[in-house]
Every structure is written in C-alpha cells, then in structure tokens.
Task: structure prediction
Amino acid sequence: MARLQLKLKLPIGSLYLVASANGLQGVYFERQDVPMVSGAVTSEARALSRAAIEIEEYFRGQRKKFEMPLDLQGTEFQKRVWAEVLKIPYGETRSYGEIAAKINNRAASRAVGSANGKNPICIIVPCHRVIAAGGKLGGYSGGLEKKIKLLEFEKK
Result:
C-alpha cells in the first residue's frame, strides 16, 4: 500500500504526517522513511491535506476534536487502548489504570503504558493526555517537555 508523508512546522516543532489511501497512519516528531508528498492529487495526498488542516486548527485553538479518517496499524490490544485514548476529552487526563479498567483489564496498566508508547498518531490519538496514577506525567514520544506544552495548551 502506498504511503506518503508531509512535514508541518508547528509551535511545538516539526511534525511528520504519514498517510495511506485509507487515512492518517502516523504523526511523528522525526522524518520517516516514506516518500514526501508531491504535487500529485492522490488519496494519500488528500488524507495528508485534511490532517494538516485539522492539526493546524488545533494549534490555533479552533479545534478540540479531530474528524479525519485514521488508518491505525497495531495489535488488537493496542487498537483497543488507542480507541479508549481517543475518548479522552480535550483538556482532560486519564491514568493508565483508568484506561486499563475501561478496556476491562484492570491488571494491564503497564501493558496500556506500552501500547500508549507505541501510538503512531500522537496528538490525534491524544496519548499526551494519559498520565500515571497520582498525576505523574510519565514518558512521551516527543519528550516530556512537549507533553507538558500540549497539556498546558489544552488547559487554556
């Protein structure tokens, strides 16, 4: 399946969006080994364009919920975790334990943390909103500083 990427420059730094014909597959802080989008109008290019518009609206404070089609790639467990993470409202947080309980596996807090760490679509699947019990922030693919900035941005 063909995939393309697009680079966006945003207040938290550059993001690299990767899409297939079925939708957005990834939002990364580093360039991926995928061809950059060209001027051709393809399903992948349309998916990237829509994602870019929605992400830019988010960073301008004009969007709190994303609507672009996603093409999530992962294990069934990871997809269950990410589906639950998608339900966390803008400006709110949930703990790994709360996510584990929502997927009916209270003992899976660490596995939830692992799945969250493998989330390929940061910001859209808002893994920055998942924190440790007691409010500790834990890790983030873009670094803890970016996680803090995103959480502070959403609190405004």
In short: The two ends are 40 Å apart (CA to CA). The chain is about 35% helix and 15% strand.
